[in-house]
Automatic annotation (TrEMBL):
InterPro entries: Aminotrans_V_dom, Aminotrans_V_PyrdxlP_BS, PyrdxlP-dep_Trfase, PyrdxlP-dep_Trfase_major, PyrdxlP-dep_Trfase_small. The keyword Transport does not apply. This is alanine--glyoxylate transaminase. Residues 150-464 form the Aminotransferase class V domain. GO terms for molecular function: alanine-glyoxylate transaminase activity; L-serine-pyruvate transaminase activity. The keyword DNA-binding does not apply. Residues 114-124 have a biased composition (Low complexity). Belongs to the class-V pyridoxal-phosphate-dependent aminotransferase family. The lineage of its organism: Eukaryota, Fungi, Dikarya, Ascomycota, Pezizomycotina. One of its GO terms (biological process) is glycine biosynthetic process, by transamination of glyoxylate. Residues 1-23 form the signal peptide. Its cofactor is pyridoxal 5'-phosphate. Residues 101-124 are annotated as: Disordered.
Length: 509
């Protein structure tokens, strides 16, 4: 019988460490060392007594058992020899072997007190009871998506993960309804904000013009990001709840050359939806070379986006909103035109982690199932993204957009029924992912949000810097919309009605 590689490796390291006596600091008798089933090492009492120094022994054993725990042939740089030669004991952290437990911990009770018939905590789920998160992102997550985060450790360049990442990137194309091979999906560890940095550092050069269409807080921030990398950002600002007119946009494009036009598809601070299809048409007609950049952080996965058909150049988004994956991934789709603009830059990008020079080849490789490394991907998050995108793309995207539009219509009708108004007054300006609701005169967000929480529902306060306490925001995306068994929307509307009544009564209104 041929001994396994692992066994040969073990014999090799064992004999070098314990039998040759080459250690500079510790002498351990081989007879006193026992390899545990979990890969750790135990000394018998007599052998412990023979050690020159107990603390040195702990440090040394820490190094040895860490290596053995991996139970795999070692990559060259990770042998006990190189660790021994290259690090001082003080560099090393004490290693406590992992003891896996099968005990199931009892979930904590929900962080609110309410009578059972008014509680709306999630019950159709294996998740611990919790108040339903209906802010405009992060949103509630599907059990299967969360469970994929518990994937065991694997190499980010091993065949298993490479396959998962490659498939994930192909599904990002489907999410954007794109079949253009020149377009390129990108998934990088980071939040939605990293998408702004990627655009600002790669697609615009110092001194070039950017036109920012402002429908709320997030346009101000995107403009600041563009300026950080040296662009001249011009904003067209609309009154709160409205959006710049098509005439204003056309006029601005005729006045000077713009490298990019940025549009926030849904501004999460106001709930205003922009017509990105119409804006892209105007840009192509008036200034065909200008790149159309969409901030889709609060729209991708619930608002219609036909990336190729609408001739869009960049959509940037994040994992935690309508895509339904925990926060931590920055997701972008770039057109062939955008990739060309990057490749023909006159100056190198003023960013390192955000540089497309680093990421484009990596993404192409992963999508062709070739292992590749620039910076370590968030492997567990990519598994979660794979799961949620598998669910989303299993059905036609128009079905998903329609489900969000229906839920949104239901919410907006109920809001109106309560005598409340939205920041986005015109129906064509109203997002389907969320609703930003003006509070009645005399009430502020802190008067209403605790009443909602008491009923197991979490909404967000306002975010627009001119009126943050005068309104609240209700996010209706992802599983809260697509899984009717959860009843999240109905429960939230009932909770809102009661919380408002309580708040009015408390204020004598
Ligand atoms: C429209 C919009 N753009 C950008 C961002 C920034 O994304 P992140 O918070 O993931 O960095 C957000 C966050 O809510 C957003 O709503």
């Amino acid at each position: 019988m041929v001994p396994s590689t692992n066994f040969l490796l073990f014999l090799f390291f064992f004999s070098v460490f314990f039998l040759s006596g080459t250690s500079r600091r510790t002498k351990v008798g081989a007879a006193g060392v026992r390899l545990n089933l979990d890969g750790g090492i135990t000394l018998d009492g007599a052998s412990r007594g023979k050690l020159t120094s107990p603390s040195q022994a702990t440090q040394r054993l820490s190094l040895i058992s860490r290596h053995l725990d991996q139970r795999l042939p070692l990559p060259e740089l990770n042998t006990p020899f190189s660790t021994e030669r290259n690090s001082l004991p003080s560099d090393d952290l004490e290693y406590n072997p992992l003891h896996r437990s099968t005990t199931i911990t009892t979930p904590l009770p929900p962080p609110f007190s309410s009578s059972p018939n008014t509680s709306t905590s999630t019950i159709m789920s294996t998740q611990a009871p919790h108040s339903t998160l209906l802010i405009p992102g992060p949103i509630e997550f599907d059990d299967a998506v969360l469970q994929s985060m518990a994937h065991y450790a694997e190499s980010h360049v091993g065949p298993g993960f490479v396959k998962t990442f490659g498939e994930t990137l192909s599904m990002v194309r489907k999410l954007f309804q794109s079949t253009d091979p020149a377009a390129q999906p990108i998934v990088v560890s980071g939040s939605g904000t990293l998408g702004w940095d990627i655009v600002a550092s790669n697609l615009v050069e110092k001194g070039e013009n950017a036109l920012v269409l402002h429908t709320g807080y997030f346009a101000d921030s995107f403009a600041t990001c563009l300026e950080t990398y040296g662009a001249n950002a011009t904003q067209i600002k609309a009154p709160i709840g409205d959006r710049p007119s098509f005439e204003q946009i056309e006029q601005a494009l005729k006045e000077k050359p713009y490298k990019v036009v940025t549009i926030t598809h849904v501004d999460t601070s106001t709930g205003v939806l922009s017509d990105i299809k119409r804006v892209a048409e105007i840009v192509r007609r008036v200034s065909p070379e200008t790149l159309v950049v969409v901030d889709g952080v609060c729209s991708v996965g619930c608002e219609e986006i036909a990336f190729d058909a609408w001739d869009i150049d960049v959509v940037l988004t994040a994992s935690q909103k309508a895509i339904g994956c925990p926060p931590g991934l920055s997701i972008l789709m770039l057109s062939g035109r955008a990739v060309n603009v990057f490749q023909n830059r006159k100056t190198p990008p003023a960013a390192y982690y955000a540089s497309l020079a680093n990421w484009l080849p990596i993404m192409k490789n992963y999508e062709s199932f070739k292992p590749s490394y620039f910076a370590t991907p968030a492997t567990q998050l990519v598994h979660a993204l794979h799961t949620t995108l598998s669910q989303i793309t299993a059905r036609p995207m128009p079905e998903r957009f329609a489900a969000h539009a229906q839920a949104s219509a239901r919410v907006k009708a109920a809001i109106e029924g309560l005598g409340l108004q939205q920041l986005a007054a015109k129906p064509e300006n109203q997002a389907h992912a969320m609703t930003a609701i003006w509070l009645p005169e005399g009430l502020a967000a802190p008067d209403v949000l605790p009443g909602l929480l008491k009923r197991g529902v979490i909404f967000a306060a306002g975010l627009h810097k001119e009126c943050p306490t005068k309104y609240i925001r209700f996010g209706h995306m992802g599983v809260s919309v697509t899984d009717p068994a959860r009843k999240d929307i109905d429960n939230a509307l009932a909770a809102l009605k009661d919380a408002l009544a309580d708040a009015k009564q408390a204020k004598g209104l």
